[in-house]
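Late entry, evening session. Most of the bench is empty. Finally got around to the prediction I had been postponing all week. Sequence below, unchanged from the version circulated by S.P.
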Amino acid sequence: MSFEQFLLLAGAHLLAVVSPGPDFAVVSRHAIAFGRRCARFVAFGVGCGILVHMAYTWAGVALLLKTHHWLEVSFSVVAAAYLLYMAWGALRSSQGMALSAELGDAPDALLSFRRGFLTNALNPKATLFFLALFGSVLNTSPSGWQMLGISAYLAFATGLWFVLLGWLLTAGPLGRFLAVKGYWIDRILGVFLVALAARLIYGLFW
């Protein structure tokens, strides 16, 4: 796996994680309702939830790269179509994320962690996103150490971003700006996904 491929993975992941979605919602709502400490444990849970998707993703990518060529081509076409589908929705985004929510009494650290973990781990779109993303970027099977390193980086980067988001929402206006104007991030992500899909199709025929 080249450094260029890692940068593509990291860039797409960064845009996806910053874009408003279920993870953004659960962290921001807990930050607004219960404060920074609660949001921090939710963020830790979201970051650990990434590891669930990594397990399925690496298994799928490893299997794909060891099977017949026609399966690899078929998966690549499906992955490109899914990336374009996501791009279409992202480019048409026009709303931010509502932050207010009635969540009852403040949850303890374990419950906060579990809410974040389940929100991410049970989101099937995240698994499909990583499968499509990795299928479009990787053309060789990474080593075991590379798989562990990438998985650890994505989990850490995800958790770090949402810890930062919880802090911003309780310390300044930037988090609220992201919540209200987050559709611009969606649109940037859409352009990036179109480019990845084009790269994937180009690699099949040229």
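Two things to note before I forget:
Residues 36-65 form the longest helix (30 residues).
Confidence is low (pLDDT under 50) at residues 98-103.
Will write this up properly tomorrow.
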